[in-house]
Each structure stands twice: as structure tokens, then as C-alpha cells.
Write a structure and sequence with these properties.
There is one protein chain. This protein has 137 residues and is an alpha+beta fold. The protein has 2 domains: 83 residues, ATP Synthase, domain 1, CATH 2.60.15; 48 residues, Single alpha-helices involved in coiled-coils or other helix-helix interfaces (Up-down Bundle), CATH 1.20.5. Helix content is 31%, strand content 43%. α1 packs antiparallel against α2. The longest helix has 26 residues. It is elongated.
């Protein structure tokens, strides 16, 4: 099957660079799948899992905190503030972060508190979703 070069980049550096048959992620308008010969595209990403299907069918799952996905002929670039391999996520820590954010949402005292807690809850839930996707492969 054909492949396309994929790069996952965060401020800490490049997390992945290689050939993939497909990338699946949570786009701003819903789940998006990119394959070779996809039309050029620039879209925002929601926090969530990013699944790469490598040459030969092997899969790798990552967590991205959101960001942008750019598709150019022959290359996909995913830019994000935070990215990590799903198999490196501490599930217990993600569960604790989710519970803490849920409590903060209940106890919010201002709009700023609510917005921060909602963002923390979304990120913790997205990390757990990346773990679930990893387990399904």
C-alpha cells in the first residue's frame, strides 16, 4: 500500500517521523482520516488520540492536546502543545486529573475557574480515550 511521511511535533521536539498508510485524529469538525494522495488541508485538532497505521499495518497511538494538522502532497505535519505515546500515559494519574477537574467544575467560583477546569477535564478525558484506543488495536 502507498504511504505518506508523517511528523508529530511539539515544543519539546519531534515525537514521530516516518512513513504511514493512514493517520486518524479528532479534527475540529469530527474524526478525520488522512491517507496518501489526500487533498491539501489545514485543520484544527481537538485533544484526543492520534492513531497511525504504519507500513505493513502495525498501529501506533499517541495523545495530542489539540493543535493543528497540515496535509501537503507527500507529507502530514501535526503541531501540538503536548504529545505523548499512548503506551506512556499513566492511567492512574489521568483518572486522578479527571476526578480533580470534575470536582473543580462543581466548585467553580468564576468563569475563569470554570474554563480552566473544563479544559483540564477535556485533556484528562482525551488521555484516557487514547489509552482505550491503544487497547483496542
Amino acid at each position: 500500500m502507498a504511504s505518506i511521511t508523517c511528523n508529530i511535533v511539539s515544543p519539546e521536539g519531534e515525537l514521530f517521523s516516518g512513513e504511514v498508510e493512514q493517520l486518524t485524529a479528532e479534527g475540529g469538525e469530527g474524526e478525520i482520516a488522512i491517507t496518501p494522495r489526500h487533498a491539501p488541508l489545514l485543520t484544527s485538532l481537538k485533544p484526543g488520540p492520534v492513531k497511525l497505521t504504519l507500513e505493513g499495518g502495525e498501529e501506533e497511538v499517541f495523545f495530542a492536546s489539540g493543535g493543528f494538522l497540515e496535509v501537503q502532497p507527500g507529507e502530514i505535519t501535526l503541531l501540538t502543545d503536548v504529545a505523548e505515546r499512548a503506551d506512556g500515559i499513566d492511567e492512574a494519574a489521568a483518572e486522578r486529573a479527571k476526578e480533580l477537574a470534575e470536582r473543580e467544575l462543581e466548585d467553580q467560583k468564576s468563569d475563569l475557574d470554570y474554563s480552566l477546569a473544563a479544559a483540564q477535564l477535556a485533556e484528562a478525558a482525551a488521555r484516557l480515550k487514547a489509552l482505550q484506543k491503544l487497547r483496542k488495536k
